[in-house]
Known about the structure:
single chain, alpha/beta, Molybdopterin biosynthesis moeA protein, domain 3, 6-stranded mixed β-sheet, 6 helices, elongated, binds molybdate ion
Amino acid sequence: xxxxxxxxxxxxxxxxxxxxxxxxxxxxxxxxxxxxxxxxxxxxxxxxxxxxxxxxxxxxxxxxxxxxxxxxxxxxxxxxxxxxxxxxxxxxxxxxxxxxxxxxxxxxxxxxxxxxxxxxxxxxxxxxxxxxxxxxxxxxxxxxxxxxxxxxxxxxxxxxxxxxxxxxxxxxxxxxxxxxxxxxxxxxxxxxxxxxxxxxxxxxxxxxxxxxxxxxxxxxxxxxxxxxxxxxxxxxxxxxxxxxxxxxxxxxxxxxxxxxxxxxxxxxxxxxxxxxxxxxxxxxxxxxxxxxxxxxxxxxxxxxxxxxxxxxxxxxxxxxxxxxxxxxxxxxxxxxxxxxxxxxxxxxxxxxxxxxxxxxxxxxxxxxxxxxxx
Length: 374
Ligand SMILES: Nc1nc2c(c(=O)[nH]1)N[C@H]1C(S)=C(S)[C@@H](COP(=O)(O)OP(=O)(O)OC[C@H]3O[C@@H](n4cnc5c(N)ncnc54)[C@H](O)[C@@H]3O)O[C@H]1N2
Ligand code: MOO
C-alpha cells in the first residue's frame, strides 16, 4: 500500500533525531541549524553613538563647537554643557550630556556659532537600543543565514553552536547510464547525479558511486558507514534489474515508507539499516527522483541537521487535473499569490521542473484552491 503523501513526508521528518551539536567558526556555520539560541554577549550599541555626520549638541542652539570625535575614538572625556557642540562622524561616540545630533547639512554657521533645529534625542543611537546583553536574538533550530552570521558577529560571537551537517553518500544504479556524451538507443545520460548536489544544502556530500544493476555491488555500497544517509537512484521498482528492496531486506533494514501515493515517484522508499543509517530510494525516472527528494530526503536531512520545520508556503492553483487517489507534484511558476503549471512534467523529464519556480502539492480531488508549494 502506498502511504499518503503528507504522512510519508511526516514519517521522513520523524525518522531520525538531530545530529550532535558542534561549535563551529562563523563562516563554517552558514546553512547549518543552531543547536542553541544566539544570545547577545554585549549590548548594541555599546555606548551612545551618532547616527549622522554632523554635530552632537547640548540644549538649545546656537552652539559653540568645542571638540571633534570620530568613529573608532573612545568616548570623549568631557560632559557637554548647554550651548556646546562636538563635531561627530557617523558611528562616533557622542560626549555625555549630548541631547541631539544635527546633521552637517542642517546646520548654518552664524558668526562662528552653529544654529539649527535640534529635536531632542534625534540622530543619537542610544546604548542598548538595538538589544541588551543577554537578549536571545535567534532561536535554536533556525537556519544560519548570511544575516544570522552578521548578527552573531555584531553581538560578539566568533563561533556558533550548530548541529553537525548530515553526511550523504549517493549511489546511482543502472546498466544503461552514461555519464558524459550523447544519449543514444540503449544508453541514457544520468540526470539524477548532476542534480543532487544542489538539492543537498545543509548536508555534506561524501561522494557519488556509479553501479551497474548488481545486487552484491549495491549491498557493498550500502555498507559505507561514514554516511548518515545513503541515497540510491533507480532500482526501486519490481523489475528484474531492480534489486534495492531485496538487498534492503537481506541487510535487515526496516522499511518506514515502502511507496507513496504520489505522482510522479510512487516507488520511492525510506528505510533504516540496523545500525541507524537511513536509506532514501529515489526512483530512476528523473522527475520522480526530484519528487522523492522533496518528499522524503529533504525532510529527513532537515531533521538530522536540527532544522525547525517551517510553516508551509501556499498559493492559489486552479483545476489542473487532480489524480483520484494520489497527490500530484506539479511544476509551476509563481506570480503574486497565484501559481500556474508549466507543463513538461512527465516522470522521465526534468524539463518542467527546470522551468518551474516551485512544485505545487496537488491533493487528490483538487478542483482549484490554496495548495502548498515546495
Ligand atoms: N511493473 C511496474 N513497473 C514500474 C512501476 C510499477 O509500479 N510497476 N513503476 C514505474 C515508475 S512510476 C517508476 S518511477 C519506475 C521506477 O523505476 P526504478 O526506480 O526501478 O528505476 P529504473 O527501472 O532503474 O529506471 C526507470 C527509468 O528511469 C531511467 N533512469 C534510471 N536512472 C536514471 C538516471 N540516473 N538518470 C536518468 N534516467 C534514469 C531508466 O533508464 C528507466 O527508463 O518504475 C516504473 N516501472
Ligand atoms: O511515478 Mo514514476 O515515479 O511515474 O515515474
